[in-house]
Amino acid sequence: MAKQQKTAWFCNNCGTESPKWVGRCPGCGEWNTMIEEKLPAGGSKSKRATFDPSRKSLPKPISQVETVSETRIHMPSEELNRVLGGGLVAGSIVLIGGEPGIGKSTLVLQNILSIRGKRILYVSGEESTSQLKMRADRIGRLSDNCYIVCDTSLENILGHAESLNPEIMVVDSIQTIASDSIESSAGSVSQVRECAAQLLRFAKSTGTPVLLIGHINKEGSIAGPKVLEHIVDAVLQFEGDRHYMYRILRSIKNRFGSTSELGIYEMVQRGLREVTNPSELLVSQSGEGVLSGTAIGVTLEGVRPFLIETQALVSTAAYGTPQRSVTGFDAKRMNMLLAVLEKRVGFKLTQKDVFLNIAGGLKVNDPALDLSVICAILSSNVDMAIARDVCMSGEVGLTGEIRPITRIEQRILEAEKLGFSNILVPRHNLKGFDTSKLKIQITEVAKVEEAFRALFA
Hints:
The chain is an alpha/beta fold and 457 residues long. 25% of the residues lie in helices and 26% in strands. The chain is built from 11 helices and 23 strands. The protein has a 9-stranded mixed sheet, sandwiched between helices. The chain has a 7-stranded mixed sheet with strand order 17-18-16-15-19-22-23. Strand 13 (262-268) and strand 14 form a beta hairpin. The longest helix has 18 residues, at 189-206. The chain is globular.
């Protein structure tokens, strides 16, 4: 009689193992995250670890540790270099996640095909070699330094890497790779954890940077165990509505750089094009007349300022309950700003529909965009247009005051560079900043009422 296959339950969030199903994970406390998987024939428990005095990794005082500058590989895309913190660090492992069809594989492929003098191994577990060749032809870049292999076995992939000795390695995607030592299917918690750990060991031991492409689940996070994001050195999120032309590359985790940077791309026929000046594309250049309900705000992502168009529509509620619809902005924050307008300024918006949209399909979290949101709503409510050469930046508090914001100098200089003649900023936010040589007029406001009078008086 055949021996029954043993199974165990693993948490999809933290990887905690349990002999039976439990509703709440004993490791991380999350509910309904336990997934049943088959155990290898030898069981799931490994041998007890023993101390080996011959190992070189012995404890030493931190003052005696030598500082070594990391070696970076300069990527062809300046936007990608900015998000990575200055380039791809040798021996690092980077995870790039995003929705299906957003352009993850295109972004990676067009970058590695443009690198000269580097031997690159591209491992695909989803596409055939002919499909990758068709994509490379569409991008219009071919390189003899890029080697392609289609395989889903981790052992075969590491064998190819050992024989080829690449200087950069790409795995597309981590959820399709499986190890023969684990009997569960590809994409399971055990497989993703084991494959990521083996690839990390390969990257650190050989100094080869590894780019992993990952799927996301319906909640928008990287599919697989949460430990996957802990293992890698950097996690990049490629986002944006695929029905729009713009794509945003954000850094969620980066051990070698800032997590505040972002890169902006435009999807075109020949791949992804870098958007070096997003302000010119995110601000409408239409000359058909100025309409009410639009305001230009100066936002900041990392150290990169750009101007963005905020659109609002306020109309009488057609039904009993007024609608609140938001695209690209925090819905709860918009409701707070509407409450401030009603309580502090006196505009009755409880019986009106309010629709808010951030142009370009972007999602913005900068609180300095509050002032442009309020001004767009006021403009639509009174049906009075804001001049197209006026922009604004400021955070709105619950008492109706305009609060100071960070990096005000960069915001003002960006607005001046794009030809705006007037900018509304919080009062007392210009301490130590010389404005005598600026061509743009700066209007300081302390309350929402002052901003309203400055725009519509």
